[in-house]
Write a structure and sequence with these properties.
Helix 5 links the parallel strand 4 and strand 5. The chain is built from 25 helices and 57 strands. Helix 17 packs antiparallel against helix 18. The longest helix has about 30 residues. The strands form 15 sheets. Strands 6, 8, 11, 12, 15, 16 and 17 form a seven-stranded mixed beta sheet that branches. Strands 18, 20, 22, 24, 26 and 27 form a six-stranded mixed beta sheet that branches. About 10% of the residues have low confidence. With about 1200 residues, the chain is of the alpha+beta class.
Length: about 1200
């Protein structure tokens, strides 16, 4: 009998329309190729249909003409799904070889019609769609063929076919066959789908006539068929709707046998869940399954067949888990609390319940069979879900009447005895473990693995059960879950005993007799006696197994063996700890350590030997205790060990690697504690050295400097020392510092200095060179080691010292590019010079002696370097500034100017000079066809005309046409060419004269001309006018009258709006010196001064100079416009060369401090004694500077006091 607890195979396979192909003889190669083309995708998900080869036209099942009489007990026959999927085609296609121009057209047309009639006769009254495909070997006609149309019409009439049921399959070109077949498949599928649609309509028409209550079974049957046909048509929403209707109809159907309702509801539930997952509604599928299980979970079978209900529930959960897993594979995302693993687990649990129920009657059934009770042959029922003893469900002639229910139940129970439940449970648990591994609930995974181990144990596969149980032992040990650990160890102990694994059996026994295991004391004592029996060569006494197992153990224990048990990983009965009495021991001391042993076993344990092993194997033989030690329960035993260190092991770490306890007999058990926690280790250090070292170092350490360090070694021991080694090492991650011996050019990070011997109270000096390549922090470590002989023993002595150092740059170099007007530059021009300023600033307190500064300039630039023999001292309070002039030769992009090298050393050092190099900036050089410059006075006066001369020089080899537009703006009145267009010959000049009258005072922006080069329209005006003066200072008109009466102070001031000037009367001699200084500073730049009684003022100033009240000097520069008749051209520029100055703060010894200022073209000048102007390299003064006058005024370099600030504010108000 086939038990109705699973699903029919037809429901588990994909549903495709069934299409029959007739008229094909597979022995014919042409027909075989056509069949292969159609059947390639027959069982594939991508295939559009299922194709069957029709060999016999009478092979189709005949339809029975029913009278809608309700069946006595059944709903759906067993073969209905198979019949409509595999036996009854929705469409039959007749293939016939016939060309349009065939000479035997009439005979073949008649034969084709006869074969089609045979098909109709074989199908009977079924509405299967028929079609004819003509296999034609000739090519298709290019256009409209009247003969083909005429014969096609004739063939349709003869075969009683519609014109849309006749097709042509050309086979002249074999490579085109697949394309034609795909087109035909689409048409055949459409006809097959139409067949199933008609069937659903026919069934619905019959269902509508069944309105009486006793027709509920037929109504349920019709709903099942309609739903199934809709699913074959791929109309998933309609099929899902009808399946839900079918499920509800089945629940409402009232029959005496509810078993068949449960079975059919299981089929329909599977389809509902499958289609819900397929349509992207997983929550609906889960809800439907929960409702289904809730509906039938408490269903009561006959009490004797309750195990079948558990089997049915197990299958329901398994099938749903498979559907859920397939949906996840298709892209569905599951949750950690809802995934297929839970359903596989539930399926396994119901199978376990099924086994438990079968255990209740298996002894009774076996006894009845032994007594001679016959086991009958159960027939296959006609309908799904029927019991064999149901009346009238099959032909009574086959069974000689109805069967007795008790005999059938006895036969089903007898068949249940042959079921191997473990083969069902283990795959389900394996699937569940895979799911729980993916979603990471580790405890659930371990529980399932343990269940698998139990199933393997029940199945008799003890090796797999042992291996699976051992996989979860480590996790339970770490979590200290003693109850579960005890259960797992019991399973492992049984498996180890049954397979004769002595090594693992001993280890498990050592863990089970521990204090943490939840076992009775008597059981622990029995296990301990089993261990003692193994020591004596006797097998353990266990309830499991038989005589063959005892023989296996006796055979394995016959030969004397040693069983090593790693106790560190176990929760065993014995604990072991060790510790050294000190963390460090000198080489002349005795190493002492202790070991503590504590036993928690029920019976005393005797240890015959204790061996302590170290990571240094030389000490293994020094720590051995070869004596019997009895360990009582919960009684600590302390063992002390002493040993002498090996003198060569100074600076080594000694660690206890393991402790071995030997329990001897005919066989030996070694309890090994590896990596004893806490880890016991000590360090063997050299004898403390009494010799001393001292290091002399100049701070700070400068980058690039070769500094010599001196080390002094002094022997303060009482006797001679030998093999003296002084090691110096630089510890830096960036290798910023290196050291070397004197007169040795090889640098390294480590040096050794050796000395054969050194007498007491004797000292020795040595030195080395240190060099730093970059700024960084590093450690300078030096170690002194030597040998000394005391009491006929030679000891190694050592002392270590570390010094943290940091290297700094000797100076900071700031490079800046300036134009001849001292404006910052980023892009150079070939027609103009560039000044390079190099400022050196000290970054530390040491004094640096700078010997020379050299420049390595790219040949693409004009540069004339003059060597300099002077030296400079650079301290933290001053700055060394160097200046050179360069001029590019040709335009270029991203050109490196070169590099600058500074040769220096400490001022108090006798070492060689050090050279520090730095790269100069990278610039782009542009070339202009013209060069523009203007002559502008240094300042102007309000409402006074200012004469400005603009010079345009053509420095190209072509005639340049220039368009100049002048825009004076709102600040100046303008006189001159406002718009001029002119042509300039090569290497010629054009002068333009303008007169500007300032309308406001202060620092005003100069009007800039707009210049366009008609030959070079891409050159911008801003580039052409970059060398022109951008601003000018305009002074207001000021009239100052000094009163004749020098003793009275009657100041007065007024403003003249007509002229925009101020008129003031002041008594200068009555003013403070600070305020007088500010006034004189302003008067030195004024051209409109009206002095009254000036002789008295000069006498007062002279007396002030003589008394020393005014002690510093101011350099005043005036512009002489009469001497500016020519415009400087590139060939008349002063020769380039370095200009240097030294700025220092004023001192009490020198009343005339040095200071500097910048001029537009010459760079920096140095002012020294009164009336003296000095410049390096004797540079010519052919610049706009025409006269320099010294005025005695207070020094402006010092900060202003509060009194001076108030005086300055008072003057500003005046």
């Amino acid at each position: 009998m086939k038990v109705d607890v699973g699903l029919p195979d037809e429901l588990l396979s994909p549903l495709y329309p069934n299409i029959g192909l007739a008229g094909l003889n597979l022995k014919n190669p042409l027909h075989s190729s056509i069949w292969d083309a159609f059947s390639t995708n027959m069982h594939s998900d991508n295939g559009p249909g299922r194709y069957m080869l029709v060999k016999d036209y009478n092979m189709f099942p005949k339809r029975k003409e029913g009278t809608n009489k309700p069946p006595p007990t059944g709903i759906l026959q067993r073969g209905w799904f198979n019949k409509h999927l595999n036996l009854i085609p929705a469409a039959v296609i007749l293939f016939y070889e016939l060309d349009w121009n065939d000479s035997h057209w009439a005979e073949k047309q008649l034969d084709c019609g006869l074969q089609l009639n045979y098909l109709r006769s074989g199908l009977g009254n079924r509405a299967t769609k028929l079609a004819v495909v003509l296999i034609q070997k000739n090519s298709l006609p290019a256009g409209e063929d009247a003969l083909a149309v005429e014969r096609a019409t004739s063939l349709c009439n003869a075969c009683e076919l519609m014109s849309n049921s006749l097709f042509v399959l050309p086979v002249l070109h074999a490579d085109h066959l697949v394309g034609y077949v795909i087109r035909l498949q689409n048409v055949f599928i459409d006809q097959a789908v139409l067949y199933y649609l008609n069937e659903t309509k026919r069934i619905k028409n019959n269902k509508d006539t069944l309105n009486r209550p006793n027709y509920q079974l037929l109504q349920a049957r019709h709903l099942i068929k309609v739903s199934f046909f809709h699913e074959i048509r791929k109309d998933t929403p309609t099929a899902l709707k009808h399946y839900n209707m079918t499920y509800s109809q089945l629940l409402e159907t009232k029959v005496s046998n509810r078993h068949q309702i449960k079975i059919l509801c299981g089929f329909i539930n599977f389809k509902i869940c499958q289609l819900s997952f397929r349509t992207g509604a997983p929550l609906d599928a889960i809800a439907q399954f929960d409702r289904h299980i809730k509906q039938f979970k408490e269903y009561t079978e006959p009490p004797e067949l309750e195990f079948q209900h558990r089997q049915w529930l197990s299958h329901q959960f398994q099938f749903f888990g498979d559907l859920f897993n397939d949906a996840i594979s298709a892209g569905l995302t599951a949750l950690q609390t809802k995934h297929p693993g839970f359903y596989y687990l539930q399926a396994a649990q119901y199978t376990i319940q099924r086994r438990q129920l079968s255990d209740l009657f298996k002894d009774t059934v076996r006894n009845l069979v032994a007594e001679g009770k016959q086991v009958i042959q159960l027939p296959i029922t006609k309908y799904f879900g029927q019991f064999p003893w149901d009346l009238e469900h099959f032909n009574s002639a086959l069974t000689n009447g109805n069967l007795d229910a008790d005999d059938c139940i006895f036969t089903i129970q007898h068949q249940e005895l042959d079921v191997d439940y473990s083969r069902i449970i283990i795959p389900l648990l394996n699937k569940a473990v895979g799911q729980f591994k993916q979603y990471k609930p580790t405890r659930m995974k371990r529980y399932l693995m343990l269940e698998m181990g139990n199933e393997y144990y029940l199945a008799g596969d003890y090796e797999k059960a042992f291996s699976i149980a051992m996989c979860v032992l480590g996790e339970y040990r770490r979590e200290r879950w003693w109850s579960l650990l005890t259960a797992v160890l019991d399973l492992c102990l049984k498996c180890a005993y049954l397979v004769g694994n002595v090594q693992d059996y001993v280890a498990i026994c050592c863990e089970l007799i521990g204090v943490n295991m939840l076992k009775h004391v008597e059981d622990k004592a029995d296990l301990q006696n089993n261990l003692f029996g193994i020591l004596q060569g006797k097998g353990p006494a266990m309830r499991e197994g038989d005589e063959s197992i005892q023989q296996l153990w006796n055979k394995k224990l016959a030969a004397s063996q040693e069983y090593v048990v790693e106790m560190t990983k176990l929760s065993s009965f014995l604990s072991c700890s060790s510790s050294f009495t000190s963390n460090t021991f000198q080489v002349d001391d005795t190493i002492r350590f202790k070991i503590q042993l504590v036993s928690t076993a029920a019976l005393p344990v005797t240890v015959d030997k204790v061996v302590v092993c170290f990571d240094n194997k030389k000490y293994d033989s020094m720590a051995v205790r070869d004596e019997k030690i009895e360990l009582l329960a919960n009684s600590p035993v302390n063992l002390s060990f002493e040993m002498e260190p090996i003198s060569n092991d100074a600076a080594c770490i000694l660690k206890i690697s393991s402790i071995k306890l030997y329990i001897s007999g005919e066989n030996s058990i070694v309890l090994q504690f590896g990596d004893v926690f806490p880890v016991a280790k000590c360090k063997i250090v050299p004898r403390v050295a009494r010799a001393t070292t001292s290091l002399a170092l100049k701070s700070p350490v400068l980058v690039g400097e070769f500094q010599q360090l001196t080390v002094n070694l002094a022997n303060k021991e009482e006797c001679r020392i030998s093999n003296v080694v002084f090691c110096v090492q630089v510890k830096s991650t960036t290798y910023a510092a290196e050291i070397s011996k004197p007169n040795d050019n090889t640098f390294d990070t480590k040096l050794d200095f050796r000395l054969d011997c050194l007498d007491p109270l004797q000292s020795s000096d040595t030195s080395f060179i240190m060099r730093c390549s970059s700024e960084a922090k590093f450690d300078l470590s030096y170690v002194l080691s030597y040998s000394i002989t005391l009491n006929n023993k030679t000891y190694l002595c050592e002392s270590r010292s570390d010094m943290m150092l940091s290297s700094v740059a000797p100076f900071h170099s700031s490079i800046s590019l300036m134009s001849s007007r001292c404006d910052p530059m980023e892009t150079l021009l070939t027609c103009d010079r560039c000044l390079i300023f190099n400022e050196l600033t000290a970054t530390h307190d040491s004094c640096i002696e700078i010997k020379d500064i050299k420049y390595d300039i790219n040949p693409e630039f004009i540069f004339d370097e003059t060597p300099n023999g002077d030296t400079f001292l650079l301290t933290k309070d001053n700055v060394v500034t160097d200046c050179i002039a360069i001029q590019p030769k040709s335009p270029s992009k991203n050109t490196k100017i070169g590099s600058v090298s500074v040769t220096w050393r400490r001022s108090d050092s006798t070492q060689t000079y050090t050279t520090t190099s730095r790269s100069l900036p990278t610039v782009s050089v542009n070339s202009l066809p013209v060069y523009l410059t203007n002559v502008v006075p240094s300042y102007g006066t309000l409402f006074d005309p200012i004469s400005i001369r603009l010079c345009v020089v053509n420095i190209s080899n072509y005639v340049q046409e220039i368009d100049i537009v002048a825009e004076p703006g709102d600040l100046f009145m303008f006189a001159g060419h406002k718009h001029l267009r002119c042509k300039i010959l090569p290497n010629e000049k054009e002068y333009l004269q303008y007169q500007l009258v300032p309308l406001k005072s202060g620092l005003l922006s100069m009007p800039q001309p707009i210049i366009k080069l008609l030959r070079h329209p891409d050159v911008e005006t801003a580039v052409l006018t970059s060398k022109l003066t951008k601003s000018i200072y305009v002074k207001p008109k000021v009239f100052i009258t000094i009163s004749p009466n020098l003793r009275t102070y009657t100041p007065s001031s007024r403003f003249r709006p007509q002229s925009g000037s101020y008129e003031s009367t002041l008594n200068l001699l009555s003013l403070p010196v600070e305020l007088l200084t500010l006034i004189l500073t302003y008067l030195s730049t004024s051209d409109l001064i009206n002095f009254t009684n000036s002789s008295t003022l000069l006498r007062s100033l002279r007396s002030s100079l003589q008394s020393g009240q005014i002690s510093s000097y101011l350099i005043r520069r005036r512009e002489d416009q009469e001497n500016l008749s020519s415009t400087p051209s590139p060939d008349r520029l002063p020769p380039a060369g370095p200009l240097r100055e030294v700025n220092s703060s004023p001192s009490s010894e020198s009343p005339s401090p040095k200071f500097s200022f910048r001029t537009p073209l010459l760079g920096r000048l140095t002012a020294g004694e009164p009336g003296a102007i000095k410049r390096r390299n004797s540079c010519s003064l052919t610049s706009p500077v025409s006269s320099i006058t010294l005025l005695h005024v207070p020094a402006p370099m010092t900060p202003l006091s509060s009194t001076e600030k108030k005086s300055k504010k008072r003057l500003r108000r005046l």
